[in-house]
Design goal:
single chain, 276 residues, alpha/beta, Rossmann fold, seven-stranded mixed β-sheet, two-stranded antiparallel ribbon, 11 helices, 45% helix, globular, binds S-adenosylmethionine
């Protein structure tokens, strides 16, 4: 697993409390992950997320994924965990405005140490966020602890692709993104199995490169002034950010980074068929 030193919770909290987080929301929308609703629906379908279930979103940001699951998948209740106070407050405000705060709640906490009761949800959910977490082994272990036996762990994440990143590419990419490290498909599978799960589905969604192309197009052709406002009208900074984004796009086109999709089941009793 490629890693860099000096990136941790403080750097991530700074991103999602400030201009960088706002820039991500400008190009991605409320759902800050590659593919937006299409990606969420795809993950929900492949994970068998069904009406009436309860879930926990680890690294939920402003809770857009949870609102989508409650509104469009009939999920009964969601609880989100995020370590950045700004986005948790924003999420609570948005859920209240949407009339969903009786079904969606938040904790301000590290996803590796949520403080939530064991075996308390039907599924654990994560979308393009676990890449920010330093200790992915602890994160997966915590996800497995808080899901019910036979429950589902479903997530997408930014991962290293098969050609691999050179050390220089990894340093530049991780520094720009404020990721302490980046997992790959085999690494996540191993962590899930070692934590007591059966891995049901692992795939590259193929969404990374086209999405970054789209974001660059929007920034260069339509949203330039909005982006400039967010960075305090600092044209040089915006150009630097644009250059790093272009670099991310090149890595994605080369297959060196990808959006991975993972669905796993915690070991436990096999659910009985009705009328069996
Ligand atoms: C890309 S955003 C998540 C987007 C969200 N899943 C969505 O699809 O809209 C990443 C989030 O992860 C949170 N985060 C990063 N590391 C964390 C940690 N160790 N524990 C909890 N939250 C964390 C950040 O605060 C940020 O809100």
């Amino acid at each position: 697993m490629k890693r860099i030193d000096g990136i941790g919770l403080h750097q991530v909290q700074a991103v999602y409390s400030g201009a960088e987080g706002q820039l991500w929301e400008l190009v991605m929308g409320e759902q800050i992950h590659l593919g937006g609703l299409v990606s969420s629906m795809d993950l929900a379908e492949k994970a068998g997320i069904a009406p009436g279930m309860s879930g926990i979103d680890l690294c939920c940001c402003n809770g857009a994924g949870m609102r989508m699951l409650v509104r469009l998948r009939g999920v009964a209740r969601m609880h989100g965990v995020d370590v950045t106070e700004t986005v948790v407050k924003l999420g609570e405000h948005r859920c209240q405005a949407a009339g969903l705060s009786d079904r969606i709640t938040f904790s301000l906490a590290d996803a590796c140490q949520t403080g939530l009761p064991s075996a308390s949800a039907d599924f654990i959910w994560g979308e393009d966020a676990w890449c920010y977490v330093v200790d992915k082994k602890r994160l997966i272990a915590e996800a497995v602890r808080i899901v019910k036996p036979s429950g589902t762990i479903a997530f997408t994440d930014w991962i290293e692709g098969p050609p691999g990143l050179s050390d220089a590419e990894a340093r530049r990419f991780l520094t720009f993104m404020k990721f302490p490290n980046i997992q790959d498909m085999a690494g996540y599978q191993r962590l899930l199995v070692d934590s007591g799960c059966e891995v049901l589905r692992v795939e590259d969604t193929g969404r990374f490169a086209p999405c970054v192309d789209l974001y660059l197009n929007m920034l260069n052709r339509q949203l330039t002034y909005d982006a400039l406002r967010i960075v305090g009208y600092d044209m040089t900074l915006l150009e630097q950010l644009g250059a790093e984004m272009k670099f991310v796009g090149e890595l994605a086109h080369a297959g060196k980074i990808a959006q991975g999709l993972f669905v796993a089941r915690k070991h436990g009793p096999v659910p009985q068929e009705k009328n069996a």
